[in-house]
Specification:
mainly alpha
Length: 102
Amino acid sequence: MRTMKNKIIEIHTVKEFDRLTKREKMIAYITSFRLDLYNRGTYCGPTAIQDKLRNENLTPVPSISTITRVLKNQCLTNGRTGYYQEDYPMWKVIKLCYIDNL
């Protein structure tokens, strides 16, 4: 599945992975490593992901801040394991109510 900048990258087949750009492939690796580390119950922050990228000889290895940005864009921060659509409409409702009350 091809995606635009700052969109969630979700891959289901090898063919989809092969069609990704280098940047998108790195995002896919970061996402995969994050979920693997999380599911193993080990530290799964940007530093651990950066170490895993180095151990797998995937270059160039992104900086900690880049990995952090990727995790945020992939909705994989604060113990989350992905994007849950039902979480976001409520946030928008609360935000709109707060703005209307100002």
